[in-house]
Write a structure and sequence with these properties.
Blueprint (H helix, E strand, L loop, with lengths): L7 H10 L16 H4 L13 H7 L5 H4 L9 H12 L3 H19 L3 H17 L5 H5 L7
């Protein structure tokens, strides 16, 4: 609904699909046979359960039925919702980056397991002691960060 690359026509189909009864409990993961994926369109994944997304995040969804998707960009609630949605982090992406970062860090800085454990302990203690430590706070002047 908030992705600019999705056509207004597809968004209209998604709005119509909001009337389709979903399962009693919204699924956390969709399981599809690979052979049917090519037959599916975005609106095929929208049901009445989709509205729980708006409710969970405390977003107003009245613009969905009150305005045509061609006009959504001019609607204040749409703009606020879009800003909120765009600020959400994809958990898997962050987790994967963190794992990769620690793997690279482990292999480059410390050579023995004892050194790695000591280094992780030092970092952990530093974070506990200075929970707000960020580069911007340490540098103090935004012009020096470039």
């Amino acid at each position: 609904m908030f992705y600019d690359a999705v056509s207004s026509n597809t968004k209209r189909k998604m709005i119509s699909a909001l009337k389709k009864q979903g399962s009693g409990e919204p699924t956390k993961q969709v399981h599809l046979e690979p052979s049917v994926i090519a037959e599916k369109e975005l609106h095929d994944f929208v049901t009445t359960n989709t509205m729980s997304f708006f409710h969970t995040l405390g977003l107003k969804a009245d613009f969905l039925t009150q305005e045509d998707p061609d006009r959504w960009q001019t609607v204040e609630h749409f703009q606020l919702n879009k800003k909120c949605i765009n600020s959400l982090a994809v958990v898997n992406d962050r987790a994967e980056r963190a794992v990769k970062l620690i793997q690279d860090f482990n292999s480059s800085i410390a050579t023995s397991e004892e050194q790695k454990q000591y280094l992780l302990l030092v970092v952990s203690n530093h974070r506990a002691r200075y929970p707000e430590a960020r580069k911007s706070l340490l540098v103090g002047d935004d012009t020096l960060q470039h």
